[in-house]
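Students often ask why we bother encoding 3D structure as a string. The short answer is that it lets us treat folding as translation between two languages. Here is a chain of 312 residues written in the first language.
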Amino acid sequence: MYTLDTDQLRTFLAVEQTLSFTKAADIVAKTQSAVSMQIKRLEENVGKPLFKRHGRSVELTHDGQKLIAYAREIIETSNRAMAAFDDQALKGHVYLGTADDYAERFLPTILAGFSESNPFVEVNVVCENTYNLRQRIKSGELDVAIITHDKTPEHSELIRSEPLLWVTSARHRTHKQEVLPLALGTPNCNWSQAATNELEARSRPYRMLYTSSSATVVGAAVLAGLAVSVQPESALRPGMRVLTERDGFPTLPRCEIGLLRGSREKNDVTEALVNHIRISLDAMPVPDYSIDRALAFAAYPSTTPQRIIISA
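And here it is in the second language, the structure alphabet:
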């Protein structure tokens, strides 16, 4: 019976986060060959392959997926034990806001990684749209917020940029309708404005079928074949099909993700979270899909609900 090495587990989680040995090497401050060796030894210890190699990228095996929760628990317990004897360990709480569009994709990685490094820091999270998060920052309710970046008086720090894409259901032909049904965010949403501006510029008839600040609600409408929407590249989900110029859908402005700081006095806890968010989003991979974006996710099974009720 082998014991699990915490250093190997940290490297494993870095590869799991980035799906790249090269990017993982930067996170754990090791060479790529050292990362490969640690993963090899970990796989030998558990007696199972943890990753499938695809050139420069990797994907988790079923056993790799199974190890994630155990690895995080072991690392967190180890960190808490060491922190108990460290008078310099960070303690306290921090208030984080994130736009709903980014919560599902980014929060698990951000919170898991930060908790591993700072087990005595409590992170309180609020998920709302960018407009409401800006108001909470102004009122001093939040220390930092992950929002859609734009040029406003409360200028945010640009920390990630990726394509904004038209999406429809891979199982329906909703995008072929004469009057295009749309599921978008609220009227003050930058993505909604960009989508409708492009359609109007091409004189493409459309109707606003669903409006919601919830990315889950908008995604459900798309997967059910009820409407077309726009999504950042990292938010693509199985069952979605990406629409391009060949389908008659114009290229959209890029999705820019920003970090907005609160007005409270800077402290070590907030600074540690801010730096962790920067590193996490920079290292986070986008979905691996084919160059032909029009056919991207079409082969994946969809978990589309048969009936949905959406409150505008």
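Translate back mentally: The radius of gyration is 21 Å. Keep this in mind for the problem set.
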